[in-house]
Amino acid sequence: MTKTSRAFTRMQVIAIAAVIVIIAVVAYVYYFYLMKPGAAAPEYIKIGWPAPITGPLAGFAETTPWMVEQVEKYVNDKMGGVYLSEYGKKVPVKVILRDTKSDSDLAASIAAELITKDNVDIMLALYSPAMTNPISAQCEKYGVPCIVSQTILISWLMGAPYEWSYCIGLAEPDYAVLFFDLFDRAVATGKVKKVVAMINADDPDGRGYGESIKYVAAARGYKLIDSGLVAYGVVDYSTYILQWKETGAEILTGNMRATEFASLWRQCNELGYRPKIVAFSRALLFPSWVEAIGGDLPNGLIGYTWWSPHYPYKSSITGWATRDLVDAWERYSGRQWTPVLGLTHTVLEVAVNTVERSGSLDKAKLKEALAETNLNTIAGLVNFKAPLTQRQLQRYQPFETLIKYKNHYVVVAPVAIQWVKGTKWPWEMQIIYNWESPEIPETAEMFLLG
Question: Rounded to two decimals, what is the model's pTM?
């Protein structure tokens, strides 16, 4: 064998040895750092959901058990679970739904138990500040990502600062401006006076709405007859009603529970007070609440909604359009759809998307992924980093927390609706003003009462 051939052979041996070493190093890194033999993939991705299945807030959670079942089935059966890159496999989703019985203290204790005993990866908190605030507080305490929705932002932000909680919420100043835009239109016809009567429940929702109305009414030159705050359970409103009649208030607004509003509106009719516009927050959200007022009294009452089958959005999970979701619910339940369907589905979309982008169940990574959400959902775009519009900045300026904590919430823009006798259901909402959402079609024109 020549010297040249022996040298070439040695070079081959060295090269082969180097390749073997490289392969061994890569295999070691892959096995011990990527495959993580000591940390097997979890059995489930656990999503905790304390919800008011029973109690006074049960109307908000009416569709929740069904929605959980639908999304779980689709994600696990049709998608095969959610891919976790940390483990290199898909893992099924398990939503742990617990009844808070509409009790704030119980909501807090259930949230703590879901975190400390069930070891949930993400928490969902919906349906009014009475639920969302105590649940968010527990997530902040234990460091668990929390997706909040269907709550009033100013009231929710009373629990700030937040690190782990992000809200798809409703802004009180929006509803005040939305309603006053409608009032301005009516006043411009010369058929309605700029005199507004207001009455609110003595609770966070009522107080927040009242402050927003006062600010907008003053800015637009309306005379405001503020009847203050009333406690739950009040049945006699005659003193207020007589005052509104005497002052010539042709517009009535406020924020009350459905039961108190029903009593108020019945008495208004009994005492001959018939304003030309009645626009209320909260009390007119659900068709069952409207129907309970009785007779033809609901006809023409104005409220708002944050979602309907007329919205042109689709689910990022199932691909369903808004009408598909409504039809599926009505076929299953035999009951009329309600606005909670949209955001109840949306929080599950955001949860699945957050886990998928994170690729991990590490809480810090999940929180980071949640903060970076930019997702088109069945209720519209969810992007916590999107800046406020100039109009929003102007509206929110008097409310410090809305400016300070912008990166922790997304505003769901409302549209104004008017209740009319329905063709399929006793009472149906018509969209009379799409406000700042031109992509949402208006389905009717507003008409005055009286």
Answer: 0.88
